[in-house]
Design goal:
It is a single chain. With 281 residues, the protein is mainly α. The protein contains 14 helices and no strands. The radius of gyration is 24 Å and the shape is globular. The two termini are 43 Å apart.
């Protein structure tokens, strides 16, 4: 009882300390999150809804939106498949090179996106390792859509895997082993035993992966070539409009990314709550 009283006393701060910490936290959020978001939407709507929607319906902007969606639609499912397979292998099996594989998965977190874009230029560019061969066969990777997709896949592939690896490791492999002993196949074991336990982790990783894929700038900027209406994603279109002093259109397009960030934050919070409460779909 004495130890419990001492512990409660050590963890109980005066009311003014708690209010001070809460005030500092709220001020920090307001300064670095709420104010910038409000500024983006305020500038986007500053000249009225007609100008706002006209900027969004401009042909180059629509092309950038389509390219961003296409990139995400290709990159996210591929990263989902890779992430689940990599997490399954790392969490459920022991094999030579396991630590090296984990290190490779973390590589995009430690490498600048600009550097990752330069890597693709060095490999697939006209003066790159396979550039001459690609040119002879009229295949375009860099400064084309395939290069943008490859660069996006590189910078986003850790998200699903890094979310699932600790989750699968914490769950262990006793349930899967029991299912196999009872005669279940590998696919039956995954979909009936493993997947129900990791479904929210998968969704959480996909949300983060999709948000990064749509908002990626550095790697995509290097490999895109900034070709209007062809290889500009939404972030690159915002940069072009801003550099041309077309601020209303720039902030209008930027508001799409800001809205994506808000939606991602809300969905992420819901998924986190579902994970903590153990809710089902």
């Amino acid at each position: 009882m004495a130890d419990h009283t001492i512990t409660r006393g050590a963890l109980t701060e005066p009311r003014w300390v708690r209010w001070l910490l809460i005030t500092v936290a709220l001020a920090f959020l307001a300064l670095f999150l709420i104010v910038p978001l409000a500024a983006v939407f305020s500038q986007a709507l500053d000249k009225g809804l007609s100008v706002y929607f006209a900027a969004l319906h401009e042909s180059d902007t629509l092309a950038s939106i389509r390219l961003t969606l296409l990139t995400a639609l290709v990159a996210v499912p591929l990263n989902l498949v890779f992430g689940v397979m990599a997490a399954w292998a790392i969490a459920k099996f022991n094999f030579p090179g396991k630590s090296f594989l984990v290190t490779l998965i973390d590589l995009p977190f430690s490498v600048s996106p600009v550097v990752s874009g330069l890597i693709y230029v060095l490999i697939f560019g006209l003066q790159g390792w396979v550039g001459p061969w690609l040119s002879d066969h009229n295949i375009k990777i860099v400064f084309a859509v395939p290069g943008i997709i490859l660069a996006t896949i590189f910078v986003t592939f850790p998200f699903v895997a890094r979310e699932l690896i600790p989750l699968m490791e914490a769950q262990g492999k006793e349930e899967e082993e029991a299912a196999l002993v009872l005669g279940a196949t590998g696919l039956q074991t995954f979909f009936r035993v493993t997947f129900p336990n990791i479904r929210w982790g998968i969704l959480y990783g996909v949300i983060l992966c999709n948000a990064r894929a749509m908002g990626e700038f550095g790697a995509v900027s290097v490999v895109s070539g900034h070709i209007r209406g062809s290889t500009n994603t939404i972030p690159l279109q915002v940069e072009i409009l801003y550099n041309e002093y077309n601020y209303a259109a720039a902030f209008a397009v930027a508001s799409l990314l800001a809205l994506l960030a808000v939606v991602t934050l809300v969905v992420k919070s819901v998924v986190e709550w579902k994970i903590k409460t153990g809710s089902k779909f």
